[in-house]
């Protein structure tokens, strides 16, 4: 009887350990600089955001020669909101500088000088996930402190 009780106790301890460590160490909701797949726009009309050209440049290149560019044609915006989220097929990287041009208005937004910091996420008992948090970036020559790429008109 004690042998069965001992095995049951060991089995319960193993299951409890897996549940405890698996529940917190998942990197879930640790969205940071490695997840730049969205740009938030505030106070823009849907027409202004219809077509956006995104050019990628080498970091600190003064946006001289683009490495590549992509055209994003949008269609899933809410007509009742001044806040829009543009989801990107290819994530942006803090290792590059970018220029966004709104085709409708010709407005240009230069994004550069990303500042990141390693931070803890989902920390708990027997768990210490880390991720690279976005702290700020330079938007048209001005430092913008934000954890997401946000452009306000």
Automatic annotation (TrEMBL):
UniProt superkingdom: Bacteria
PROSITE patterns per the UniProt record, alphabetical: PROKAR_LIPOPROTEIN (PS51257)
This protein's name: Lipoprotein
Source organism (scientific name): Dyadobacter psychrotolerans
Upper taxonomic lineage: Bacteria, Pseudomonadati, Bacteroidota, Cytophagia, Cytophagales
């Amino acid at each position: 009887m004690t042998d069965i009780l001992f095995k049951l106790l060991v089995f319960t301890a193993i299951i409890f350990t897996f549940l405890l460590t698996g529940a917190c160490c998942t990197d879930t909701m640790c969205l940071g600089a490695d997840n730049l797949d969205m740009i938030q726009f505030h106070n823009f009309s849907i027409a202004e955001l219809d077509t956006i050209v995104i050019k990628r440049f080498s970091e600190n290149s003064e946006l001289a020669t683009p490495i590549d560019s992509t055209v994003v044609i949008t269609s899933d915006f809410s007509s009742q909101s001044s806040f829009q989220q543009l989801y990107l097929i290819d994530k942006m990287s803090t290792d590059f500088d970018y220029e966004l041009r709104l085709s409708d208005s010709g407005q240009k937004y230069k994004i550069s000088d990303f500042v990141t910091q390693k931070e803890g996420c989902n920390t708990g008992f027997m768990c210490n996930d880390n991720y690279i948090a976005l702290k700020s970036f330079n938007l048209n020559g001005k430092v913008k402190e934000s954890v997401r790429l946000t452009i306000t008109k």
